[in-house]
Design brief:
Number of helices: 5
Structural class: alpha+beta
Shape: extended
Order of helices and strands: EEHEEEEEHEEHHH
Distance between the termini: 72 Å
Strand content: 15-25%
Largest sheet: 5 strands, antiparallel
Length: 236
């Protein structure tokens, strides 16, 4: 168009983009004047009533209620009463079973199953001393149960290790600075109680693992598929 501030290069394609055209017009500089919201209308009115024993006044609704109602009740949406129930642990997963993690930060690592928490998540450990996997919760949908077993009858898991044990505490976030981003000392230290719990569980777990030949090396090795391997034909 002749005289247009945003002429068309070709039919359907303008010279300036939508954001560039808005900036060129300077609409963002215009100040919007807020419109005052009207006060809500009164729903009732106070009327004077004659008579010494009538109280002197009555509160009357401004809108009259309907005189007729529908013969049948208006259908309402059904309220859901679903409660979250933890999933049952698979029969192939028993205390001491070696599991293969297939998702998450430690995907491919082998861990030892200890117990099932109240939420239905599995409590596992590498142990940390062998393959670097600490005490953590995993969903049983993302593990492969193997035929390898560890005798965990002598492993005592502290009663304090539950779902609330793994919840991260809320911290006040300050303004990010370059020094805080690149300072290694600014990292959050590991709780001393967690370190003590990890050492106590690992001590008994490592002792049980050493009783079985090559089991320590098996847990330390990561799981991976090579070319030509079909996962559905493998026997774990």
């Amino acid at each position: 168009m002749a005289g247009s501030k945003n002429p068309a290069l070709i039919p359907g394609v303008a010279t300036l983009s939508r954001s560039a055209a808005t900036k060129h017009k300077g609409i963002f500089k215009l100040k919007k004047t807020p419109t005052p919201k009207p006060a809500p209308a009164a729903t009732t009115t106070v009327k004077k009533v004659g008579g010494a024993k009538n109280g002197g006044s009555r509160i009357v609704p401004n809108a009259q209620r309907p005189k007729f109602y529908p013969a049948e009740d208006v259908p309402l949406l059904k309220k859901t009463r679903k409660t979250l129930r933890p999933a049952a642990t698979r029969a192939s997963i028993t205390p001491g079973t070696v599991l293969i993690l297939v998702a998450g930060r430690f995907a491919g690592k082998r861990v030892v199953y200890l117990k099932t928490l109240a939420s239905g998540l599995l409590l596992v450990s590498g142990p940390f001393k062998i393959n670097g996997v600490p005490l953590r919760r995993v969903n049983q949908a993302f593990v492969i149960a193997t035929s390898a077993k560890v005798d965990v009858s002598g492993v005592k898991v502290p009663a304090s290790i539950d779902d609330a044990y793994f919840k991260a505490g809320k911290e006040a976030k300050g303004k990010a600075t370059d020094a805080a981003l690149f300072d290694a000392a600014a990292k959050k230290p590991v709780d001393a109680q967690r370190v003590a719990d990890q050492k106590s569980v690992d001590a008994a777990l490592v002792a049980a693992i050493k009783k079985t030949p090559l089991l320590k090396a098996y847990l330390n090795a990561s799981f991976a598929l090579t070319k030509g391997q079909a996962p559905h034909l493998l026997k774990f």
